[in-house]
Amino acid sequence: MIRLGLEHIQQLSFPDFNVTGVKFDPACRYLEIAIDGAFFEDRSKGKLLNYGKLCFSHWEDFKAAQYNSTSDNWSPLPLNCIDNLKDICGFKYIKGKVYIEGFGKTSGLWTQLVKIRQFLTCQSCAIFLRKMAHDENLLSITHKLA
């Protein structure tokens, strides 16, 4: 497995891949999203990655909301009632916030999860993905993060 940190998550996308499982424990401040694939956008070209896990922990704040197009509004979700994601359509890191967006598996509604700032450690966000093929550039990124 390779490991990517926060500085590289902007280079990940998940086109045509699905969420295969979610472990969420708001009391322990832990979120793990299993995915069946990812795409790492390198400077020169992209790299197809196999299944993996996105792991987040030790956040300062965590918010979830769903957009209802019928009523044209966002509804905040209690952390104990979050609809697991079917897929990840949006994934970005902006000014200490990680935004994860996709369609709810049960509701089908557009869902946004926002993790705000690391709380205890710089290791609070880890993306573990299996590479489909050997790639020195991608491996060099992961060795620098270790």
Summarize the SSE layout with pairings.
Elements (H helix, E strand, L loop, with lengths): L1 E3 L7 E2 L5 E7 L4 E6 L2 E4 L4 E12 L1 E10 L4 E4 L13 E5 L2 E7 L6 E9 L6 E7 L4 H10 L1
Antiparallel strand pairs: 1-12, 2-5, 3-4, 4-6, 5-6, 6-12, 7-8, 7-11, 9-10, 10-11
Q: Quick summary of this structure?
A:
The chain is built from 1 helix and 12 strands, in the order ββββββββββββα. With 146 residues, the protein is mostly beta strands. The longest helix is centred in the last third of the chain and has 10 residues, at 136-145.
Describe the structure.
This protein has 146 residues and is mainly beta. It has one domain (2-145). It has one helix at 136-145; strands spanning 2-4, 12-13, 19-25, 30-35, 38-41, 46-57, 59-68, 73-76, 90-94, 97-103, 110-118, 125-131.
Features:
146 residues, mainly beta, 7-stranded antiparallel beta sheet, 5-stranded antiparallel beta sheet
> How large, in whole angstroms, is the Cα Rg?
15 Å
Helix percentage = under 10%
Strand content: over 45%
Number of helices: 1
Total strand segments: 12
Q: Ranges with pLDDT <50 over ≥5 residues?
A: 119-126, 131-146
The CA-CA distance between the termini, in Å, is 12 Å
Biggest sheet, open or closed, and with what strands and sense? 7 strands, antiparallel
| Class of secondary structure makeup | mainly beta
Shape: globular
Task: Give the domain tally.
Answer: 1
Mean pLDDT: 76
